[in-house]
Predict the 3D structure of the following.
Amino acid sequence: MTTAKAIINRLATGVQGLDQVLGGGLPEFSFNIIAGPPGCGKTTLAHQMMFALATPERPALYFTVLGEPPLKMLRYMQQFEFFDSAQVNRSIYFINLADDTAAGDLDKVLEKIVAAVEQHRPGLVFVDSFRSVMLASQGSGNSYITLQQFVQQLGMLMTSWQATTFLIGEYFTDADPNPVFTVADGLIWLRQSTKRNSVVRNMEVMKLRGQATSPGLHTFRIGSDGITVFPPVLQSFAPVNAATETGGRLSIGVPDLDALMGGGLPRGYSLLVAGPSGSGKTILASAFLAEGARRNETGVIASFEQRPSLSRTPAVAELIGSGRVGLVDTRAAGMSVDELSILVIAEIQRLGASRVVIDSLSGFELALAPSFREDFRESLARMVTALASTGATLLMTSELEDRYDDLRFSPYGTAFLTDAIIVQRYIEVDSRLQRVLAVVKVRASAHSNELRLFHVNDEGIQVGEMLEGYEGQLAGRPTRRAGVPAPLASLTAPKQP
Amino acid sequence: MSTGPQRIEAVLARHLAEGASAAVIADAACELWRRIDAALSPIIGRHGVAALLKRSLHLTAAAHSALIAAASADTRPGDFRALRAALAGQASTEAAALNAALLGTFYDLLSSLIGATLTERLLDPVWASPSTDAPTQDSET
């Protein structure tokens, strides 16, 4: 007795990120529905998969029904890079069913499909749009079979002919108990959510028989190369740089600060640098990358400042120019945290980078589509974990409004997400605005608890002494304890700890 | 390499050189349009092909008044009788020139909509066997 089970081959869809969402690719010979409201990318998704999968040995049939006129569809679809005219009438055949569908005769439509399937023996079949088949059949009594029978027969026929099939349809609500959804093996729902003037495209695999899909909504983008889906980042990356596996600590580029951290930042840690505007966060981040370059390590920076060219220090600009630091393009409107994670990780892997800077979380939050801001904290936690799994050491800056009535180290309650925290603050001393910094946390490591004065000059951050003899510094206006002289002169000669 | 319309023109020129009448030229032209219909209608529908031909007739008639009647004729998709009548009513040289102009317009119109590469690709079966004397063949979709 044989116990061999049927083997389901999974096809690579050619849509970046989709195979992961589908749980490993598209099951061969499955009967699927791509649903969603108009303009959400159904036809684009179908074409992209078709051009990736069709070969002369496994041709595709694309039936156009009453929806978009085929001429227009061809006109617009060929704007995408995946559209290869040479495949048309060689491995891809477009077949128009409008005349038969208009009559509302489902038997005739099925007959036409069968004839074409018998002629071309396709491995892939697309029916676009299926909604119009349904409407046409409702509009007239010409049909001897019902829509459900039609779908069942079509499904049976296509499976027997070993064709992976897609019905593309306009549906406005997924609550519709449509019999078509029951028959289908796979149901891919595309949506667009609009909030204020931002539009975010989402994909959800609501059903796919026989495999575990990635649940929930996944954002996607449509560009000149078609659809790119941004699934949650898998946390199974092997560390990309052998150096990161050795453990130990790395210098963050300011020796005094390394000392305050107990001998540098442990490799693979995530560090949050929080402080008010202009306190020197970006300069610290630049020092971190420059120190890496000095030690022949590569880095990656994702900058979210409003004028990125200004926010980058000359040192970082030079590192980017020489290719030692990769710059992640963050200009796309309405980003999601998952999208940024994927872009940053791709860049880390490309360069084998061991240092990563995100400058700043506050700018990043503004760059996110409004609908993602509600989940910012959760998504950020996922991103930090994902980036940590690459083995790279992460430095994130965060704008921190100076409030002297409460002691906070980060906005959004993100402090717990990172392994280490450095806080910078302004204080008023003798009618001057001075800066202090402190290492608030280095997980599983001893570190200094000193509140140190610092200033920024052409060489970068210069850490000074503690402001001895003052108290109440975190309240912003420290007061000198009676009989203690002001130590501010020592700021110009930083103390070596 | 010559384009499809140029190859068709060459076929009609050969007919002319052989002293063909306007009626023969008109038949050859209609056979060509049937081939085009057969190649395109599975993809864009018979009404789609008919709409493109109608538009091409209107555009060409602006410079060739002999096509005005065919352009305004009320025809069903795949019915080329009005076009045949318009061509057959001319001298044979004029009939060949008219059809060449119409074909050029149709080709340009389709190219402007779906690009020259795809147009050439879809009309490939038409040019593949340009002998318009050949019996009608069902072209592959």
User: Anything to note?
Assistant: The longest helix of chain A spans residues 106-120. The two ends of chain A are 78 Å apart (CA to CA). Chain A touches chain B through 19 residues (CB under 8 Å). Residues 240-246, 489-497 of chain A have pLDDT under 50 and may be disordered.
